[in-house]
């Protein structure tokens, strides 16, 4: 075989760009989720690539590209057999192997976002391995390895179905089996927004992915040594960019009309939705077709996010199911409508009839069935053995600490509390002879009201239950402060890069309540019942007298200043 330097460089450049998509996915997922899980998310995006690479080398590549049957390649540990039947012109085996390896890693990493903030790290490693080992390679063989879908004329140029939809389907099944995050849905079943902690990082991730998508789609020509390939690469680049831009613009306008203001995070999702949608047919449609595909994806991603969030109640923190699963399938099917016949069969709107469209529909459906069936078995085995979901305590604490012993990924920065927590039933109100409707007075001066500051130091995760129960007994106001501190245990030892790291200052919440009408003992007993777990770190309560209280707005002092208007 004669090698082409131009083709080889083009494929290797594409492999490098697709690899860098891991950074984009890591930034997106970290930014759209809470700070207490950042280290866990970054770790997963690193490890799915590092787990998938050797497994794809050992087993996956042979299954995907081996000249076995129409349904399955062959088992070829270490890629030792002859693959000349599948190699692009002028591209050596190892260049093509690394190009395909990074695509495999992309499919695995998609699942991380939908299952973020509540999945055991060990479980993630196992199912990520399963995706790279056989789930992705088998359907990839059908489409790109000379399998039965390829023989029928199924067209998925760079992976809307082969890569993105496979990841999206795995994400859907996984998120459904996991259940929603604590606090995602209220007692009435309505979803609550759980804000991501860093929109800037999420935006950076989107821009990285958009940039790298030129390698994802463009380098899938796997050559640049002929006029035809040069023209095709130019069209692919143009269509890729156009579809993403149109999808983004569509979602911005759609959310503006739908919500009253343009939604920032949804618009960022739309950029990725347009990129995913055009990936199947970026070489087969003209710019008009690319723009229409982008337009459809711009609408679809918003409606899909709302559907999964509000209707079927599947909690997807980053929108991975809608972006990759829904828009991956949609883009592949729309190729059956808008393909011009330049590099594949003609679509419905270009005189090709419904044959090509039916093949596209068959391909999407068959890959969904395969992926959903196998990943369900994988998740079920994991759930029955090592467990799939982290405990409620670990989830509330954050997976950075519980799974990795990482105190925080943002040492030196103050991080806001969770924007949603689990609905907690109020504790039983302590019984006793309380005079809860009249001012409490000092014993040595019956006519003088006493104002008492009850200062409660507790875990951040305990704040919402504490607030709900304090409201239940009539407390109408409190001051809440993020603080750092430690008790008699002097903190818990952790490790950083294998070196003992003594954490003496732990994040806590300080709640100050000035009591004048509600008996102090009632406040204290209620707080004790809410905060008690029996473990180190439940907190402390400090009680001090307050000399006077002044309401600045009205000038009222003492008892009157503490009463609600």
List the helices and strands and how they pair.
Blueprint (H helix, E strand, L loop, with lengths): L4 H27 L6 H28 L27 H22 L6 H23 L4 H5 L7 H19 L20 H20 L8 H33 L4 H15 L8 H25 L8 H19 L16 H30 L7 H6 L1 H6 L36 E2 L2 E5 L1 E8 L4 H10 L6 E7 L7 E4 L2 E4 L3 E10 L4 H12 L8 E7 L19
Antiparallel strand pairs: 1-2, 3-7, 3-8, 4-7, 5-6
| Amount of helix | 40-55%
Number of strands: 8
Strand order of the largest sheet: 4-7-3-8
Q: Tell me the strand percentage band.
A: 5-15%
CATH topology of the largest domain: Ammonium transporter fold
- Tell me which CATH architecture of the largest domain applies here: Orthogonal Bundle
What overall geometry do the principal axes of the alpha carbons give?
Answer: elongated
Main sheet record:
4 strands, antiparallel
Distance between the termini: 86 Å
């Amino acid at each position: 075989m004669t090698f082409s330097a131009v083709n080889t460089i083009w494929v290797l450049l594409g492999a490098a760009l697709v690899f860098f998509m891991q950074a984009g996915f890591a930034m997106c997922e970290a930014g759209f989720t809470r700070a207490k899980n950042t280290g866990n998310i970054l770790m997963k995006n690193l490890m799915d690539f590092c787990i998938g690479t050797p497994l794809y080398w050992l087993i996956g590549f042979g299954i995907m590209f081996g000249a076995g049957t129409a349904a399955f390649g062959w088992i070829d540990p270490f890629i030792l057999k002859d693959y000349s039947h599948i190699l692009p012109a002028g591209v050596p085996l190892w260049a093509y192997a690394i190009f395909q390896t990074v695509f495999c890693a992309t499919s695995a990493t998609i699942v991380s976002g939908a299952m973020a903030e509540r999945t055991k790290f060990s479980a993630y490693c196992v199912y990520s391995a399963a995706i790279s080992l056989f789930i992705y390679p088998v359907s990839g063989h059908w489409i790109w390895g000379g399998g039965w879908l390829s023989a029928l004329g199924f067209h998925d140029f760079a992976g809307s179905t082969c890569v993105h939809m496979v990841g999206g389907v795995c994400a859907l099944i996984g998120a459904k089996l996991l259940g929603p995050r604590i606090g995602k849905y209220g007692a009435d079943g309505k979803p609550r927004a759980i804000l991501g902690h860093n929109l800037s990082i999420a935006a950076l991730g989107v821009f990285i992915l958009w940039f790298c998508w030129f390698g994802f789609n463009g380098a899938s020509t796997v050559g640049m040594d002929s006029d035809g390939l040069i023209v095709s690469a130019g069209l692919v680049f143009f269509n890729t960019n156009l579809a993403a831009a149109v999808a983004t613009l569509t979602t911005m306008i759609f959310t503006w009309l739908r919500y009253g203001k343009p939604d920032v995070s949804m618009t960022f999702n739309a950029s990725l939705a347009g990129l995913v949608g055009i990936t199947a047919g970026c070489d087969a449609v003209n710019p008009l077709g690319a723009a229409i595909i982008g337009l459809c994806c711009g609408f679809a991603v918003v409606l899909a996010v709302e559907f999964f969030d509000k209707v079927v109640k599947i909690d997807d923190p980053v929108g991975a199911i809608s972006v990759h699963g829904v828009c991956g399938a949609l883009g592949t099917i729309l190729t059956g409508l808008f393909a011009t016949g330049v590099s594949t069969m003609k679509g419905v709107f270009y005189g090709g009839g419904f044959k090509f469209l039916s093949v596209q529909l068959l391909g999407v459906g068959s890959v969904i069935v395969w992926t959903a069936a196998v990943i369900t078995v994988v998740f079920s085995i994991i759930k029955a053995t090592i467990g799939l979901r982290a405990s409620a305590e670990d989830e509330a604490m954050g997976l950075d600490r519980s799974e990795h012993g990482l105190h925080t990924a943002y040492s030196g920065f103050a991080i806001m509390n969770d924007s949603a927590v689990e609905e907690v039933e109020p504790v039983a109100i302590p019984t006793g002879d309380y005079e809860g409707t009249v001012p409490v007075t000092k014993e040595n001066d019956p006519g003088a009201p006493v104002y008492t500051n009850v200062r409660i130091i507790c875990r951040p995760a305990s704040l919402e239950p504490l607030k709900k129960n304090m409201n239940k007994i009539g407390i109408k106001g409190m001051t809440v402060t993020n603080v750092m501190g430690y008790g008699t245990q002097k903190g818990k030892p952790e490790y950083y890069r294998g070196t003992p790291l003594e954490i003496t200052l732990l994040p806590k919440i300080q709640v100050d309540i000035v009591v004048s009408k509600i008996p102090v003992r009632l406040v204290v007993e209620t707080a004790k019942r809410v905060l008690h777990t029996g473990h180190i770190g439940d907190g402390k309560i400090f009680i001090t007298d307050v000399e006077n209280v002044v309401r600045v707005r009205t000038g009222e002092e003492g008892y009157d200043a503490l009463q609600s208007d």
